[in-house]
Amino acid sequence: MSAQSGGPARRRSAVATREAIAEAARALFTADGFEAVGIRAIAARAGVDAALVIRYFGSKERLFLDVMTVDLPVATVMEGPLENLGRALVEHVLDLSSSTSGALAVTSLSALFHASDREPVRRTLRETVERAFAVPLTGRLRGDDAELRAHLVAAQIGGLLTSLHVVRDPVLTEAPRPTLISWYGPAIQHLIDGRFDPDAQVRP
Predict the structure, then answer these.
(1) What is the pLDDT of residues 110-165, one digit of tens each?
(2) Are residues 179 and 87 in the same domain?
(3) Cβ contacts of residue 104 below 8 Å, gap of 6+?
(4) Is residue 187 a part of any domain in this protein?
(5) Prediction pTM value
(6) Does residue 168 belong to any structural domain of this protein?
(7) Of 11, 19, 68, 190, which alpha carbon lies 20 to 30 A from 148's?
(8) Which residues contact 134 (CB under 8 A, 6 or more apart)?
(9) Which domain holds residue 46?
(10) 85 and 27 share a domain?
């Protein structure tokens, strides 16, 4: 009985230790970025030995990717009517930081972006954007090149998101909201609708 009662206690301690490390790492990576944060600093903040950080997460990079996950809160808007989805997506990106979940996503996205010289981080960023925008759109679009158009939408929305909330391009952040929507919304909608003008092709 005593051995059985001791087992769960040890497991709870391991879970608590892992969570303490994750919370410490998340706070430090958010504040200082990937490169500036060391294993010892994470361990000190978590109140554990540095060896435990490696034991539970394997490496600093794996810990970073584990705790700086991005869950973009876009599912509801992505399920909206296709006929005005371009405008709705732009409006949603403009307002992203106004919600708690959106602000958390932007914080993690910024940390990942500034560590994107590493291939695993670039892959995580790419998969995040694809999962949020390209995957749900691919099954809904009709006409030629549906998958390509869905990924082009993801690329354009991902670029707008990064420019507004990560690098904070002052021309975009200071532009009037209606102007941004009126320019960018139709560009996204063109890809969603799949309207193709053969006379607009670039010829060699």
Answers:
(1) 999 999 999 999 999 999 999 999 999 999 999 999 999 999 999 999 999 999 99
(2) yes
(3) 71
(4) yes
(5) 0.81
(6) yes
(7) 68
(8) 147, 150, 151, 153, 154
(9) 9-67
(10) no
